[in-house]
Amino acid sequence: MNLKFKTTALAMTLICGICHAQMQSENIREDFKPSTLNQAGQEFPQVNSQGYARFRIKAPQSDSIKVSLGLGGQGGTKLTKGTDGFFTGTTSGPMDEGFHYYHLTIDGGVFNDPGALNYFGSTRWESGIEIPAKDQDFYALKDVPHGYVQQILFSSKSTKSSRRAYVYTPPGYGKGNKRYPVLYLQHGWGEDETAWSNQGHANLIMDNLIAEGKTKQFIIVMTYGMTNEIKWGGMKDFKIENFQTVLTEELIPYIDSNFLTVADRNSRAMAGLSMGGMETHSITLNKPELFGSYALLSGGTFNPSELKDKPKPALIFISCGGKERPENVKNAVKALKEAGYNAFSYVSENTGHEFQTWRRSLRELAPLLFK
């Protein structure tokens, strides 16, 4: 390749890049509004009607800022420094609807965005941003009867510690002697027992479904799955035994002793997202006498051979995002149905391994439980 050709090719590449950036900029609607997850009075970050996110950080003494979005902080949006000391930048494309973790890398150090609220994910408190979803009404805060989410502390002899869980009780709980089924609902890797209430809006999803008469009332128990000691990418090294003991021998007896539960297999279910789904898969196979319904949300699948000769579950629910591997979920459920199991699949349209997938999955799962 001669020098003249190289120079021409380089110029054409630069021109194309500039044109693409200009076209992209022209196509972005300037209807940005503060994210609903911003700290009080903070204007940034912002989102627009197309799903783009815009960030603005004041750091006059800094040289570079990158925004890393998603669980684990993959990818990045580089911000540009202005003469006023503010760094500003917009994502290169629209983001998926729903909740996203993110953090800032400022001159090589990792920080949270001072404008956003923080949520526990990626084994640390991360900033959060919400891209409004077209179907967000099902987890909206509405003028309907609300249940309660309370923190409980229970003793764990196996770990020689006191442990924490959050318990959702439905509207009207405790006003009589009515007893309720229980769903044990697990978070994913990097998260903790706060995730399903804070990021997932599990309580609001349940309140709205109950108000619409679409689901039976039940208790939800959310506890830490003891997963975060495993480094990212090392899931195969996780051992279920310690958490299985905490859940089945310590937490379940505590819940049945202190809450108005129906303490039998058919009135007890377990579900989990991502690594919490892997935990659900292992524990329900190991302890099928304890759980009557199983749900894996982006957390693998069941197959008939591993369920053979075990107490038959009343329900198996398997879901994932449309950007994950929906064919695996559909094929697994097809095989389960052919083997005589009451199995359901759900695929969240246009979402990946993220909370919008799992919010929608809970909405679809709840009406199927405890029939």
From TrEMBL:
Gene Ontology molecular function, alphabetical: hydrolase activity
**Does the record's keyword annotation contain Transcription?**
no
Which terms are listed as keywords in the entry? Hydrolase, Signal
What's a Pfam family in this record?
Esterase
| Signal peptide limits | 1-21
Q: Which InterPro entries match?
A: AB_hydrolase_fold, Esterase-like, Mycobacterial_A85_antigen
Can you say what this protein is called? Alpha/beta hydrolase-fold protein
User: What organism is listed for this UniProt entry?
Assistant: Pedobacter jamesrossensis
